[in-house]
Design brief:
327 residues; TIM Barrel; 8-stranded parallel sheet; 10 strands; globular
């Protein structure tokens, strides 16, 4: 498992989160004007998974339950040497008695599902918790329940021989400043690592997928890219064990270019014990989705756009990206 964790953050590579739920991906297709049908997502995945050279920049791809069951789609990745991951949580629901807060479901029956996913070729897993910043939130109850679920997921994954990607996401939604974003991210990550230790999770056989320390998207006082990179590294150094083999960032509502810039700047600054990599969804596949538009005649162009984005994120891994590359 340690080898898998290290392979996922190999130099110049990162993880592609292609795990949006059927409902979410259909909404995204509709937002960019793609006519949707029963097989639209499978067609989209097949189009992009077949991209030549993807394996040079992408170490692993996280799938959802629907896509991992498609042998043809799995083979497009495994034949390139790309590792298969699976999102195992069942999404978020409102936390009773705590307005504005969410809890992630999916622990029931997880042990059996993990065994099944391992049987069809999964090497790693992912579970996402979401924390919202607002008036008097997050509460310690919400943080506590979510980090306990993350720790149980991680322990069950390791028991099954699968590398857990632990994703506690402090959402960008809201008006909070970067100072508030930093305070909450610090609190959440501190709690995550306390809970992982209590559940005897092997930190050298997991990856952390955190958010960038960020201002809220409705905040009038926007932090600079430099400040976002510095504050994020500061919080990681204060909370994350050096035993963790790597950190793979979520893009969390940042544009494709912004997300790449943040990873690049953190790698330029450096001075941390872990590889700083990426595990993007929209910031990786979003531009390719727009170019594809659901049309076969755009397949090659969409693949080129995906490859271009993957390559730029690969360069960001060594602090070698420049916004001037964006054409």
């Amino acid at each position: 498992m340690e080898e898998i964790a290290k392979a996922l953050v190999a130099p110049g590579k990162g993880i592609w989160a292609a795990d949006a739920s059927p409902k979410t991906i259909m909404k995204r297709f509709q937002e960019v004007g793609i006519q949707t049908g029963e097989n639209t997502n499978k067609r989209f995945r097949e189009t992009l998974f077949a991209t030549d050279g993807l394996e040079n920049y992408i170490s692993g791809v996280i799938l959802n339950d629907e896509i991992i069951r498609e042998e043809r789609l799995r083979n497009l990745l495994t034949n390139k040497g790309i590792l298969i991951g699976i999102k195992v949580d069942k999404g978020t629901v409102d936390l009773e008695n705590f307005p504005g807060e969410k809890i992630t479901e999916g622990l029931d029956g997880l042990r059996e599902r993990l065994a099944e996913y391992k049987g069809i070729g999964a090497k790693f897993t992912k579970w996402r918790a979401v924390i919202t910043i607002g008036e008097n939130i997050p509460t310690h109850v919400c943080i506590g329940l979510n980090v306990e679920a993350l720790a149980r997921f991680a322990a069950l994954s390791q028991e099954a021989g699968l590398v857990p990607v632990v994703e506690p996401e402090v959402l960008m939604d809201g008006k909070h400043t970067i100072d508030e974003g930093e305070k909450v991210t610090f609190k959440v990550l501190s709690n995550v690592f306390t809970e992982l230790a209590e559940h005897k999770v092997n930190l050298s056989q997991m990856l952390l997928k955190p958010n960038f320390v960020h201002h809220g998207k409705d905040c009038l006082k926007r932090a600079s890219d430099e400040k976002i990179a510095q504050r994020t590294l500061k919080v990681l150094k204060e909370t994350v064990s050096p035993q963790v083999p790597g950190i793979v960032f979520l893009s969390g509502g940042d544009s494709a270019i912004e997300a790449t810039k943040h990873v690049d700047r953190m790698n330029e600054i450096g001075g941390v014990p872990w590889p700083i990599a990426f595990s993007f969804e929209r910031a990786l596949e979003g531009p390719a989705m727009i170019v594809w538009g659901g049309k076969d005649e755009n397949i090659e162009a969409a693949r080129q756009v995906l490859l271009d984005r993957a390559k730029k994120n690969s360069l960001a891994r060594s602090g070698s990206y420049s916004e001037s590359m964006e054409g």
